[in-house]
Amino acid sequence: MKTRMKKLISISTIPVLALALLLVLGTVLADDGAIEAQNPAPSLTGATKYDFFGADDPPTVDAEGRVLCWKGPISGDIEGVMLWWFDMDRFVTIGQVSHWVDRWEIWSDDPLENPEAAVLLLAGDEAGTTTAPPGEDGFWWGKGIVTEASTEFEVWIGRQMYDGGNVKWAAPGLPDCGEGTFRINLIFDFNGDGKVDNEDISIIAGYWNTGEPLCDISPAPLGDGIVDAQDLLVLTEYLTKADVEADIAAINEILDNYALAMIAGDLDLWMSFYTDDTIKMAPDGPAAFGKEELRAMMKPLFDNFTFEEMAIFDVEIQVAGDWAFCRCNFTATMTPKAGGEPLYMDAKDLCTYKRQADGSWKIYWDCWNSNVPPAAPPVE
After folding, report:
1. 235, 201 in Cβ contact below 8 A?
2. DSSP single-letter state for residue 154
3. 46, 191: one domain
4. Same-domain check for residues 300 and 171
5. Is residue 224 pLDDT above 60, yes or no?
6. Do residues 59 and 91 touch, judged by C-beta distance below 8 A?
7. 57 plus 199 within the same structural domain
8. More confident of the two residues 292 and 200
9. Interval 286-309: pLDDT, tens
10. Rg of the Cα atoms in the chain
11. In the structure, what pLDDT confidence band is assigned to residue 46 with cuts at 50, 70 and 90?
12. Are residues 251 and 323 in the same domain?
């Protein structure tokens, strides 16, 4: 006996602003119920001090034509030397604010002074701004994504990167040096604790209608300079997706056990997958309302046939809140216990699942019919 399971799953959510607002209100007021991130690694942080190299003559230029603007040591969770290569064609100053795009790199040693010993630890793309108030030192912030990493830091590839700090001017219009912080973390994990939960929703609410880069997560990848409903919706979709994926997995587990119960001839296990008020609509007969009628419908089948094989495939599951909808095909080979030729089934099924009070899923409505008349198994 064997069970063959072939699943092609599509996930559907219904992200609406009302759901987002309800999620915010419900989660902020909750004391627990944190939703674990897919990878619970905490943030990777470092502190850096740097010198400005933009006035070098001749300038230091990388293979892509970017100019070395800042370089300095970084310490903390990651140790080494950090370099910023600015794309001067995308460097614009308007009034007191400069907008720039760059590539940042963290090396184990200085790649310009000791290239043979230097190993690239992390690198990525970034965009940001530098602001220089008249007569004062300025500040800067950047936001980007990790694109390269050595083996020990590969877990951070694809993560969001944030940095920011102070810029000091030796003369008007000419930055000289500075210091700041650098952090890589999960997108949406604003406090870097390795999970996305009510604290992160509170943080995004605290920066509402500001330009806080940490919470400006939409449009991807660099935001639009304001924390607003777009960012809240992206966060909500992330949290909803985490729930939906868990629901999909739970329903797939029911499908696996459903086939195993048929093969094992375990009617009680099979019945446990249905709600008390279930309705099963099988072909060529009246529907069964409730578990008592369902058991009466299925008992002769379990009593008189052995399922040698059952396969459930082409599975499509969609989840909407406390309801889920599953469409699939299935095949089964049934052998009469009294003797005789086996029967082969080739059928399709459409089920409605209902979430129970304990969070589990059970089949509520179940409707199926055959693709072909019952017959002997096909000749292989």
Report:
1. yes
2. G
3. yes
4. no
5. yes
6. no
7. yes
8. 292
9. 999 999 999 999 999 999 999 988
10. 30
11. very high
12. yes
Q: Say if residue 106 is in the same domain as residue 46.
A: yes
Q: With DSSP H G I counted as helix, E B as strand and the rest as coil, what are the percentages for the chain, rounded to 5?
A: 25, 45, 35
Q: Which amino acid is at 336?
A: P
Q: What is the residue range of 140's domain?
A: 37-239
Q: What is the mean pLDDT of residues 255-271?
A: 91
Clarify whether residues 235 and 248 are in a common domain.
Answer: no
Closest by CA to 85, choosing from 105, 99, 114, is 105
Our CA dihedral for 295, 298, 302, 305, rounded to 10 degrees, sits at 170
DSSP string across 207-236: TTTS--TTT---STTT--SS-SHHHHHHHH
Q: In terms of domains, do 178 and 252 share one?
A: no
**How wide is the angle at C-alpha 379 spanned by C-alphas 378 and 380, nearest 5°?**
110
Task: Give 147-154 contacts, CB < 8 A, sequence gap 24+.
Answer: 147/123, 148/120, 148/122, 148/123, 148/124, 149/121, 149/122, 149/123, 150/119, 150/120, 150/121, 150/122, 152/121, 153/44, 153/78, 153/121, 153/122
| Tokens read off for 143 | 């936001």
Tokens 């990651």 belong to which residue?
A: 78
Q: Could you tell me the pTM of the whole model? A: 0.51
Residue count (the chain): 380
